[in-house]
Amino acid sequence: MPTCENCGQKWPWKKIVSNTFKLTNKANCPYCGTTQYIVVKSKPATAILNFLPAFLIITVGMIFDISVPQVLMFAVVLVIIFLIIYPFTFNLSSDEKTLN
Ligand SMILES: [Zn+2]
If you measure from the C-alpha of residue 3 to the centroid of ligand 1, how many angstroms do you get, rounded to a whole number? Predict the structure, then answer.
């Protein structure tokens, strides 16, 4: 789980996920209040994580003859798994420059 570079506290999962939905890489630490930048830990891992759910849904849909509601259920499960793993692929940095 991402750790604040300033105070060393681990950020709650909820904080990272809610920030992801805001589509910003900037967030205030819930413990010390300093601005932290959410930095991707591993770009290839994040890319795989972004494409894997869609790839799995298409593959499963092609191999198994499943109905639309089943595909949707499978998609929901994948999104939940994705959201659980997602915050682990980030680091926090006090400096935006480390993004590059
Ligand atoms: Zn902090």
Answer: 8
